[in-house]
Amino acid sequence: MSAPATPRVVAVLDGTCVGVDRRARALAGFLRDGLRIGKDAGAAAEAVTLAFYADSGARDSLVELAPTRDVRLIRAPEFRPDLMSGALTAFEAGGGAELFVFPGGPLGAELAARLAVRSAGSALTDVQGAAAGPAGLVCRRAVYSNHLTGRFELRARPWCITLDAGWYDARIEPASEHSVRADVELSAEESSAAAALRHVELLEPPETGDLEAAKFLIVAGRGAGSRGGVERIAAAAARMGAAFGVTRPVAMNAWAPAGRQIGVSGTRAAPVVCLVAGASGAPAFLWGVERAGFIAAVDTDEHAAIVHEADAAVVDDAVAVVEALADIVARERQS
Q1: Structural domains in the chain?
Q2: d(CA 63, CA 178)
Q3: What pLDDT, in 10s, does the model give residues 25-56?
Q4: Is there a contact between 81 and 114 (Cβ–Cβ < 8 Å)?
Q5: Based on the number of CB atoms within 10 Å of its own CB, is 249 exposed (0-12), middle (13-18) or buried (19 or more)?
Q6: What torsion, rounded to 10 degrees, do the Cα atoms 228, 302, 73, 101 define?
Q7: How many alpha carbons lie under 13 Å from residue 304 in its C-beta half-sphere?
Q8: Is the pTM of this model over 0.85?
Q9: Which residue in 26, 31, 129, 197 is deepest, having the highest Cβ count within 10 Å?
Q10: Degrees to nearest 5, angle at CA 327 with 321 and 329
């Protein structure tokens, strides 16, 4: 029997973290009611689920949740979007699937964007509905703070979309029967990003401690929560050999010396790497870090301005993430 042709639609299901049942229902609802391929609404019959899992014990239950009959399984380590995006890129290159559908949220948006860039396709987030047109994929999504609905047309294939949060309320049951077409395992060695991490240059702070001369700068914002939180970020910065700065609200609250302030009323820095921890990203502050070679942000608010301005962002508690990063750097220095 010959292998089935690569389907036009791929539903991407991440089973490496909690809430997979809601994501599966959202995908099932969209494939049935939100997508029109050809003359008929619904695309489940033409789709395949590409499902990532980390624990072999959860494999069978993940298959049962899949929104389509055909399922392709990929075992990958947890919290590795680099591995996931590499597998997605390889899958697309192997058969030319036209549409990849991701659940909403930061990971879905990251995977969609990575795949679109790597495959020279196009991406759109928070899609409410879509239909294949003569020139591309026509999508609907909310605009102007949900007051209006906009129409967007994706031209370059593959089309990579994430679902609007409303699809999480879907109560669609998964497919009644499933057929596992493949089950492969990824390892960290298959990731070029992982290989690059083995050659990270740990930047040393300048002897003067001058913020303007810092190569590696960590800036604490009001999102640190308290003087204690700011002090913990400062201690983590010292462990990593990074210069330490703060935003204006932190200085105004006397949680740190005013001489550490970054921004219009403080220092304008130009580090190689700047890690912004718990700052919303006000224009006056961004002026102080915009010359950085690479900006990474950590914030609990995925809609914060700094998250969109940064080259990379983590949506999580700033203090905890910076301290965990300091532990990683400390181990790297010892190796």
Answers
A1: 9-194 (3.40.50.620), 211-334 (3.40.50.1220)
A2: 7
A3: 999 999 999 998 765 555 555 789 999 999 88
A4: yes
A5: middle
A6: 180
A7: 25
A8: no
A9: 26
A10: 100
